[in-house]
Amino acid sequence: MDLTTLTYLAVGLSFALYIGIAVWAKASSTGEFYVAGKGVHPIANGMATAADWMSAASFISMAGLISFLGYGGSVYLMGWTGGYVLLAMLLAPYLRKYGKFTVPEFIGDRYYSKTARLVAVVCLIFISFTYVAGQMRGVGIVFSRFLEVDLLTGLIIGMGIVFVYAVLGGMKGITYTQVAQYCVLILAYTVPAVFIAMQLTGNPIPQIAFGSQLQGTDTYLLDRLNQVVTDLGFIEYTEGSKSTIDMFAITVALMVGTAGLPHVIVRFFTVPRVRDARSSAGYALLFIALLYTVAPAVGAMARYNLTATVQTGAIGSPDGNLTYEERPEWMKRWEATGLLSFEDKNGDGRIQYYNDQNADFQTQAAEWGWQGNELDVDRDIMVLANPEIAQLPNWVIALVAAGGIAAALSTAAGLLLVISSGISHDLLKGTITPGISEKTELMAGRIAVAVAILIAGYLGYNPPGFVAQVVAFAFGLAASSLFPVILMGIFSKKINREGAIAGMLSGLVFTMGYIILYKGVFIEPVIPNTPDNWLLGISPEGIGAVGMVLNFIVAFLISKVTAEPPDHIQHLVEDIRTPRVTAAAE
């Protein structure tokens, strides 16, 4: 069976499964629509949480980042997984014990302020739309390559599938759909990794193959990869290019940003008991680890295979390069998507792939007649293209396509529901029209999801210039605005509404302003984005860590010089943290 037919079959069967689950798990109340009736088993919730978090960024982009950044890409592994430790220990069980539907609702109640709730809604919507635009773009890319349809058609199909199970099933439908999507994406990620690990090292376990010797040699995979990339003018794969303080700041920003992301936090509102929230976080870490421990091996093997494809002879020699006419079929297919391109700068018909920014290597390259790097490979294609590069069976490639779509759709659905709850529950019922009935609120939630899907589809097809630039912005925003105010709301009785609002706004404005200045959001960058110009040597990707500290400081100082929270709020904080002994509560 040819690749296109297999891909349609794999993706079609997965879509049928998702829609079937949505029909079975149709939400009939606001409780089921927002938090799945608080009746999800911790193991199922752990799977759903893992799928919700492991978006197109994790499935498609993370190994690509590691592939090209090497050691520097480890910040994503440490930051994203470390965030779940913070979430499990500091937030999840207490928020579940509080028992509300949304993060803004908790913030509004804890700080006895509609203004605080509105600020939280604004943060939530910005973060969620930033993410969901990227997910829809990922859906379009996977469709355009594997189903051979144009980007718009792919987006419309993806929007239609999400519409059915998000609007119909709400959180209940999304939860059980995400369980199925986790199974699809984890198989799609690990099966090719097992094949390629076996192919390169003879060891079927990717995590072990990563540190094993290449088959038939005495050379370890990473040692050979280091030699290969340095021969082409790149830095060693196992050597970092970032400063220690920047690595630390980015890791902290990603960790804290993860713990503060609304679409992740809301998953822990769906379990029956407080202790189940902590168990869910533990299971989620386990399920996430199955992918995240494989990612470094996938990144390294993809980079090695890509270089071996282009360099048919001696690495870094003038006659060792693949000719353009002899390029393999996988390169031709990815060229059609525009995510891989070749420009014959010196007219010799061969593909020169090297680091033309390395001043030391430029002299040697010039002697060979090379006039610049000629191969442009989008790092986002590495996971998707890796099975094709390794010439794996067509069914494995089709499985990867289904997994990439599952990863993007699972997160898109969770984000859209968070947007819906922010608009219908926090904004409409919580502020504008508090007297509306449950039926009206449920209808408003479904309409909000439908409108959000249309906006997300538009952003996926016509991404604004800032979408790609503010991936770190979403984490920085969550880290500098929502995480501190939630943490202080749980563990400090003395932080009042004035302190919380001032803290959120100061962290938000500082982080936003820094990234606008250096990366250009809506405007051209004002300051060159180089380490010499960064504050304390911290890049825009890591500045959320500084914004978080600023948020804490401002909140504490303002709370010190203004009135303490009312007694009932202080008792509420004590009650959130104090274990209950009744069986019903636990």
UniProtKB/TrEMBL annotation:
CDD domains: SLC5sbd_u4. It is found in: Membrane. One of its GO terms (molecular function) is transmembrane transporter activity. The chain crosses the membrane at residues 6-25, 46-69, 75-95, 116-134, 146-167, 179-200, 247-269, 281-302, 395-419, 440-460, 466-487, 499-518, 538-558. GO terms for cellular component: plasma membrane. Keywords: Membrane, Transmembrane, Transmembrane helix, Transport. The keyword Transmembrane helix applies. InterPro entries: Na/Glc_symporter_sf, Na/solute_symporter, Na/solute_symporter_VC_2705, Sodium:Solute_Symporter. It is a multi-pass membrane protein. It comes from the Bacteria. It holds the Pfam family SSF. NCBIfam families: Na_symport_lg. Belongs to the sodium:solute symporter (SSF) (TC 2.A.21) family. This is Cation acetate symporter.
